[in-house]
């Protein structure tokens, strides 16, 4: 079940209504350029894959992939030292400093 003549004509008519007659040639030209570039890149990749066989069977040097260093995972809240207040500050005599004690 592919696209038939009627469906193609309907799609073309909808494109004409959406983009207008003046922009359709530019869009078609741009689409053709994109297809040409894609085809050239695909051919370049295929040629690149075939190149090691022509060089005496030596495989191409492998590319190293960058691997980001992993950060240590924190599993839960860290314990506060004895006498520490909610904000983690410790008073001069080892007691938690708080605004309510003043």
From TrEMBL:
Belongs to the TatA/E family. Residues 58-74 have a biased composition (Low complexity). It is a single-pass membrane protein. Residues 43-102 are annotated as: Disordered. GO terms for molecular function: protein transmembrane transporter activity. The Tat system comprises two distinct complexes: a TatABC complex, containing multiple copies of TatA, TatB and TatC subunits, and a separate TatA complex, containing only TatA subunits. Substrates initially bind to the TatABC complex, which probably triggers association of the separate TatA complex to form the active translocon. It comes from Nocardiopsis composta. GO terms for biological process: protein transport by the Tat complex. The gene is tatA. Keywords: Cell membrane, Membrane, Protein transport, Translocation, Transmembrane, Transmembrane helix, Transport. Gene3D superfamilies: 1.20.5.3310. Part of the twin-arginine translocation (Tat) system that transports large folded proteins containing a characteristic twin-arginine motif in their signal peptide across membranes. TatA could form the protein-conducting channel of the Tat system. This is Sec-independent protein translocase protein TatA. It is found in: Cell membrane. GO terms for cellular component: TAT protein transport complex.
